[in-house]
Task: structure prediction
Amino acid sequence: MNLIEYSTKVLQFRFLNLGLDGSRQAFLSYEPLATRGHIWLVDKNQGRDCKGQWFLNTDKKYLWEIKCSDGLKASGSLTNPLNMNGTGKGKDNSNREVIFVFTTEKK
Result:
């Protein structure tokens, strides 16, 4: 039997200022050497469930996008997540600024 080994890393987003319309944290995952990965958040207080992705585009820029069950959408740019910490920024679909920092998840 062949077993596939995964070495998925998880980073924690901490939204600054007003957050993602009030949501304060999310998570990002990736495989080492990947050019794309997942972003997700669940905010029970807001009744919000969001899923998205980050990716390296053809211009060698890291971008992110997320869509939520309540209609909220946001997108923007971020620093290389493979460095395991960094920053990101963007706008939501109401033109509100979204700023975050990310780092390895604390256990």
Observations:
- The chain is about 0% helix and 55% strand.
- Residues 54 and 64 are 4 Å apart (CA to CA).
- The longest strand covers residues 48-56.
- The mean pLDDT is 87.
